[in-house]
Structure formats: structure tokens, C-alpha cells
């Protein structure tokens, strides 16, 4: 009687382990599917040129159609961002060191540094007091 009970207890333990593994796998799969659903329910990103929909009465289907048209260049929404305000384009323009203008700027700065070093202006102490005020007034 005791042996039979021990065998049933062992079988029960194995079955419990097996079902718990299946349960954990199923729970992980449900979490993965929920995350995927959440990603799929997010609104589709429009092309970089268009970040807003012009009218508020457009349905989701129209939004995706508008995005496809904008991607193909069919329709202009008039929402272009000026270069001065567009951080991405502004940073790209500033980051490109190979342009002729940037090269000329670097040369001018290097010449100014060299001239200041040769004349001793870089080693001079800053003006204070009356001398500083005179320098500000006289330029």
C-alpha cells in the first residue's frame, strides 16, 4: 500500500513538473503575443517629411493611404520643416566637415590661433578693472 502511494506521488510530481513547464511556456508565448499586438496596434509612422495629418476627419485607412502617397511623392502636404528648425538636417549640415565652407572656417580659425600665439595674445593675462573698461569703450 505504501509503495503504491509512493509510485502515485512520484508520477504526480512528474506530471506536475511537465504541466508547469507547459504552463510557463504558454504564459511566455501569451506575453510575446501581447507585446506583438501592442506593436501592431501603434499607428504607422509616416515618412520623415510628413508628421501630421492635415484634416482631423480622416480614418485610419485614409491615414495609411496618405502615407503611401507621400512615400511615393504623389501628394504634397505642405508641412515641410524649415532647415533652421529641422534639428536632423541642421545637425547633418554641421557634422559634415568636408564642405568647402567648413574647410575655409577651419583655416581662418587656425590662422587666428597662430597669429595670437605669435603675438603673445594667448599668453597675456585678461584685462581687469580700468584697463578692461577702457578696452570695452575703445573696442
Could you explain how this protein is built, in words?
- The chain is an all-alpha fold.
- It has 3 domains: 42 residues; 51 residues, no CATH class; 42 residues, no CATH class.
- Helices cover 66% and strands 0% of the residues.
- The chain has 5 helices and no strands.
- It is elongated, with a radius of gyration of 35 Å.
- The N and C termini lie far apart (109 Å).
Give a brief description.
By secondary structure, the chain is mainly α.
CA radius of gyration: 35 Å
The total strand number stands at 0
Quickly give the structural class: mainly alpha
Straight-line N-to-C gap: 109 Å
Layout of helices and strands, plus pairs?
Elements: H1 2-41, H2 60-72, H3 87-95, H4 100-119, H5 129-138
Jot down its keywords.
139 residues; mainly alpha; 3 domains; 5 helices
